[in-house]
Here is the input.
Amino acid sequence: MPVLELTTTGRKSGQRRSVMLTSPLQEGATIIVVASRGGDDRHPAWFLNLRDDPDVEVTLKGAPKRRMVARVANAEERARLWPRVTADHKNYAGYQTKTDRQIPLVLLEPAV
Here is the structure.
């Protein structure tokens, strides 16, 4: 799975925050990440940050950092993408069984 660095703006501090994530799926220029937090009942901090400020920066595969816009997959997109994610990466399906919250899929799309 490709590893990426996601930089968000802290929703409380306003400071830039970076985290290393994996991307189980990419569609064209869109990078999909999973806000699983290992099946915890709480969303990861990076997800809360991008939910409040979707303007992010992403570094993938050693390429230069690029501006992207993050958004949570809608119900239709999640219904299409989740089976693809879990078919190849069964750990995500296991995480979903550990929590009552629906684990969000986040789409990182190039900023225009």
About this structure: The mean pLDDT is 95. DSSP finds three helices and seven strands in the chain. Residues 86 and 92 are 6 Å apart (CA to CA). The helical segments are 45-52, 75-88, 90-97.
